[in-house]
Amino acid sequence: MPYIGYWQLIAAVDTYVVYDDVNFIKRGWINRNNILLNGEKKLFSIALHEASQNKLINEISIADDFSKLRKTIQMAYAKAPFYAETMELLDTIFDFPKHNIALFIDNSIRNVCDYLHMQTNIILSSDIEKDNSLKGQDKIISICKLLHADTYINAIGGVELYDKNVFDNHYIKLLFLKPEIECYQQFKNEFVPGLSMIDILMFCSPKQIKGMLQRYSLIDSPLTKDMERKK
Questions:
Q1: Are 77 and 202 in contact (CB under 8 A)?
Q2: What gap in Å lies between CA 21 and CA 76, rounded to an integer?
């Protein structure tokens, strides 16, 4: 349940690839995020079984019954305007029968997309027959070609990972999504940005969120001006 920038990315593309056959990152954001508790940012984590950076994401399983997280979310958001609807959605996600973290994440993305009526095609990178000896941007370019993509859009945090000229040489346009974080009412607290999508779902209607998902810019370099702004 990442922050809204990733959901803007999902909304911006035709096909979103869940990159599950790369190494797990300890203390990263794969199994944890922040919610709002008593007006402050509060980190939550999903317990995993023998997680290691020597394993691929799709080799790691969940060791969590979600009872503690359910109670924390209830404590934080019981009086939020869309608590009932969001809790029903989260219960569906938490009750997913498979414990593989990659499949769990894939399912959670699909459930949120259904709730928000997003039509993006979601696929796992492990389901794509590709050369797994490739690394970094070479692997990304290979995936793009296999999916017949002419444009690759990544989160703004990836600007230092990819070389525009290399993508151009393969006739693939490289763009980065720069999110515009819109303020919304979080009870009577001062606004805390960049929290898990759980927070937005609790305080905003699907219609409001659909509008937020369009507030971003696409840039081809961190040094260029914004190429496109959707409002």
A1: yes
A2: 34
Other C-beta atoms closer than 10 Å to the C-beta of 174 total 24
Tokens of 148: 């017949």
State the DSSP H helix or E strand holding residue 43, giving kind and residue range, or none if neither: strand 40-45
- 22 CB-contact burial (10 Å; exposed 0-12 / middle 13-18 / buried 19+): middle
Torsion of CA 3, 143, 160, 119, to 10 degrees: -30
Within the chain, residue ranges assigned H as helices are 4-12, 67-77, 83-94, 101-115, 136-146, 164-169, 197-203, 206-212
pTM over 0.85: yes
How many other CB atoms are found less than 10 A from the CB of residue 179?
21
Residues 6+ apart with CB under 8 A from 58: 20, 21, 100, 101, 102, 103, 124, 126
Q: Per residue in 13-25, pLDDT tens?
A: 999 999 999 999 9
